[in-house]
Structures are given as C-alpha cells and as structure tokens.
C-alpha cells in the first residue's frame, strides 16, 4: 500500500527527494489521523462518499477531487501539517494531495476494499 502511495506522490512531485516523499507519506499515514483509512473516512463524512468509493471500487473511473474539498474534509490543521512537512504552502499541499490521492487510494485497494 505504501509503495503505491509513494509512487503516486512521486508522479505529482517528480523532482522531490526521497526524504520529501517519506515526509508526505508519514503525514498521510499519521496514526493521529487514522492513517489512510482515517483520511478516507473523513472524506466520506464530508459528503465525498461517491468520489472516494470510485477510487476504491474495481473497474471504475476515479472521480476527481479538488484541493478545496481536501481542505474542507481534512481540515486546515492536517493540510497545514502536511505542507509544513513538505516545505510548501498549504494551498499547494492540498492541490498536490488532491492530484495524488485518487490514484494512490486506487492502487492501495486493488481488491475493492480498504486494507485492515
């Protein structure tokens, strides 16, 4: 699962050093936020269930998400923490997360279910 997330992040941040990728992965998988499952649940609770379910389901097209939707669902604190770890501004962090998350969740759920 982590490899798929890291590869997705590398495609969004192709010039990023491995240390930067590791920091982003740590923020996404932070147990304080429930890890990947927690992020998915926060998105669902924010009314983005159909979007998130498209990433998890097999044989469906991944619906897009915006940086604003990421910030609304995860909260400014989480996005700001990720931005701080990446050394970028929160708006950029939200946009980059929005760009990588659909593919990352898709790759992390090849059987159509979230990992336990």
Brief rundown of the structure:
This protein is mainly alpha-helical. It is built from six helices and no strands.
**Rg result:** 13 Å
Helix percent band: over 70%
- The portion of residues forming beta strands comes to under 5%
- Cα-to-Cα separation, first versus last residue: 11 Å
What is the count of DSSP helices, taking H or I runs of 4+ residues? 6
The SSE string, one letter per element, is HHHHHH
> Tell me about the biggest sheet?
none
Mean of pLDDT: 79
Structural class: mainly alpha
Spans of at least 5 consecutive residues whose pLDDT stays below 50 are: none
Shape verdict: globular
Number of strands: 0
Highlighted features:
116 residues, mainly alpha, 6 helices, 0% strand
Give a verbal description of the structure.
The protein has helices at residues 2-12, 18-28, 35-56, 67-74, 76-86, 90-108. The chain has 116 residues and is mainly alpha-helical. Helix 3 (35-56) packs across helix 4 (67-74). It is globular, with a radius of gyration of 13 Å.
């Amino acid at each position: 699962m982590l490899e798929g997330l890291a590869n997705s992040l590398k495609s969004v941040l192709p010039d990023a050093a491995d240390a930067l990728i590791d920091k982003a992965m740590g923020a996404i998988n932070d147990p304080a936020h429930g890890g990947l499952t927690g992020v998915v649940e926060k998105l669902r609770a924010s009314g983005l269930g159909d979007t998130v379910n498209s990433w998890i389901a097999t044989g469906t097209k991944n619906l897009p998400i915006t940086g604003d939707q990421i910030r609304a669902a995860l909260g400014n604190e989480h996005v700001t923490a990720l931005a701080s770890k990446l050394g970028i501004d929160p708006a950029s962090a939200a946009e980059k997360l929005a760009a990588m998350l659909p593919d990352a969740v898709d790759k992390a759920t090849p059987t159509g279910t979230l990992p336990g």
